[in-house]
Design a protein that fits this description.
Its EC number is 3.1.1.47. GO terms for molecular function: 1-alkyl-2-acetylglycerophosphocholine esterase activity. InterPro entries: AB_hydrolase_fold, PAF_acetylhydro_eukaryote. The protein is 32% helix and 19% strand. The protein has 402 residues and is of the alpha/beta class. It folds into two domains: 233 residues, Rossmann fold; 114 residues, no CATH class. The strands form two sheets. Strands 3-1-2-5-4-8-9-10-11-12 form a ten-stranded mixed beta sheet, with helices on both faces. The chain has a two-stranded antiparallel sheet with strand order 6-7. Helix 4 links the parallel strand 4 and strand 5. Bound molecules: the ligand CCN(CC)CCN(C[C@]12C[C@](c3ccc(C(F)(F)F)cc3)(C1)C2)C(=O)Cn1c(SCc2ccc(F)cc2)nc(=O)c2c1C=CC2. The site of the ligand CCN(CC)CCN(C[C@]12C[C@](c3ccc(C(F)(F)F)cc3)(C1)C2)C(=O)Cn1c(SCc2ccc(F)cc2)nc(=O)c2c1C=CC2 has 18 residues, from loops. The ligand CCN(CC)CCN(C[C@]12C[C@](c3ccc(C(F)(F)F)cc3)(C1)C2)C(=O)Cn1c(SCc2ccc(F)cc2)nc(=O)c2c1C=CC2 binds next to loops.
Length: 402
């Protein structure tokens, strides 16, 4: 039962025409630098291996802290449950695309990190997008890291743990973990500060991609086999969208407000709490809200409604039978019972749910980035025209005061 059971679990492979490559980028040795995972169309290749879904065990430690469960016990459970999963992409495979690729910047949710939305990011890349999944350093990630130069005494003592990079560069990994709300601390100031930093990190990632696209040599402090010069002139920098899940959905809206290069946004089960009301009239781009059935509540929906506009396209759909965790990869990685118990799965088949979300997203991106692909075949999904979709929301809204 063990191995039969485990081999039917896994992140669904992308459905688009292109094979998908995956690599990591870290700009410098500071927590202020840009750090993202890149998904892109690649050459079919046998020899490239698929990267680990969770790149190092510290992420599981961070996840345990985030979930307020004991580290040592949970680290072993996570490793046993999730340690062997691979991403449906080829590590450092050579970039290949006919024509320039539209670009998506993706922002993860509270307590997540850059690798946990690979079913969404790889799917977009298989349809010809270049996707940068940012790892935020605002202390909302379960864990993240950067490098610092070792001190002379550390170099001498050789006590700093040996990681791949540190051996070569006398560098020490510095881990930054999730910052929980302190007892009695009010949440809005923290989340509002974080959403602003997160938007800046999305814009910085876009700036790095722009530089890479121009052919200017760009430093990547991570030792990867990927040749970044092959991305010269690969991106269509008039066709850029920003997207995110939950806290990442709010980040996408904040980023739209700050950066006009983002032509539209897709917010997956957006958590609107961190946003200032005063930014809503300043967002001028189209936004697509794709909601789960279980996460939303009237207060959150009413804030999305504040973005409704007669002139700018703002769409909303709800996927029947989904929960908040139907968007991150965990929803594919456990059996039904555990999944439903831990609220990682809803009633709907997880692959059907993410397929509806991805196709609706592609149709919306074609419409507002002016793509000449065949994603308009999925236009009805944008209006919730499917048995598994609800146009707008299922949340009963208090009648707004006349
Ligand atoms: C008690 C902790 N308390 C913290 C404030 C609430 C914790 N929580 C519910 C959780 C995440 C949960 C989770 C993960 C992962 C496993 C695993 F077992 F599969 F690993 C299990 C169970 C625990 C479901 C959420 O925060 C929900 N949420 C999320 S979840 C994003 C995420 C995080 C970690 C992941 F691995 C994957 C996805 N992103 C947001 O932006 C927002 C919210 C709420 C408001 C804004």
């Amino acid at each position: 039962m063990g191995n039969r059971c485990s081999n039917h679990l896994g992140i669904p492979p992308p459905k688009g025409p292109s094979a998908v490559g995956c690599t990591d980028f870290m700009m410098d040795h500071t927590a202020q630098g840009s750090f993202f995972r890149l998904y892109y169309p690649c050459q079919e290749t046998e020899k490239a291996e698929k990267p680990d879904w969770v790149p190092s065990r510290e992420y599981f430690n961070g996840l345990a802290d985030f979930m307020k469960i004991n580290r040592s016990l949970s680290e072993r459970i996570f490793n046993h449950l999730f340690g062997s999963f691979k991403i449906p992409a080829y590590l450092d495979a050579p970039f290949k695309s006919n024509g320039k690729c539209p670009v998506v910047i993706f922002s993860h949710g509270l307590g997540a990190f850059r690798t946990l939305y690979s079913a969404i990011c790889a799917e977009l890349a298989s349809h010809g997008f270049i996707v940068a999944s940012v790892e935020h350093r605002d202390q909302s990630s379960s864990a993240t890291y950067y490098f610092r130069e070792k001190s002379d005494s550390e170099k001498a003592s050789k006590k700093v743990p040996k990681t791949r990079a540190s051996v070569q560069d006398n560098l020490a990994q510095v881990w930054m973990y999730y910052r929980a709300l302190q007892h009695g601390e009010s949440e809005f100031p923290l989340r509002n500060k974080q959403v602003k930093q997160r938007a800046d990190e999305c814009i910085l990632a876009l700036d790095k991609l722009t530089k890479i696209n121009s052919g200017t040599p760009v430093q990547n402090v991570l030792r990867t086999q990927f040749d970044w010069t092959t991305l010269e002139n690969s991106m269509d920098l008039c066709r850029i969208a920003v997207m995110g899940h939950s806290f990442g959905g709010a980040t996408a809206i904040e980023a739209l407000c700050k950066e006009v290069r983002f032509k539209c946004g897709v917010a997956l089960d957006a958590w609107m709490f961190p946003l200032d009301d005063e930014i809503f009239p300043r967002v001028k781009q189209p936004i697509f809200f794709i909601n789960s059935e279980k996460f939303q509540w009237a207060g959150n929906i009413s804030r999305m409604r504040k973005l409704d506009s007669a002139v700018i396209q703002r769409k909303m759909i709800t996927i029947r039978g989904t929960v908040h965790q139907s968007f991150p990869d965990f929803t594919f990685l456990t059996g039904n019972w555990i999944g439903k118990l831990m609220k990682l799965k809803g009633e709907i088949n997880p692959e059907l749910a993410i397929d509806l979300s991805n196709k609706a997203t592609l149709a919306f991106l074609q419409r507002h980035l002016g793509l000449e692909k065949n994603f308009n075949q999925w236009d009805p999904l944008i209006d919730g025209e499917d048995d598994n979709l609800i146009p707008g929301t299922n949340v009963i809204m208090l009648q707004s005061a006349i």
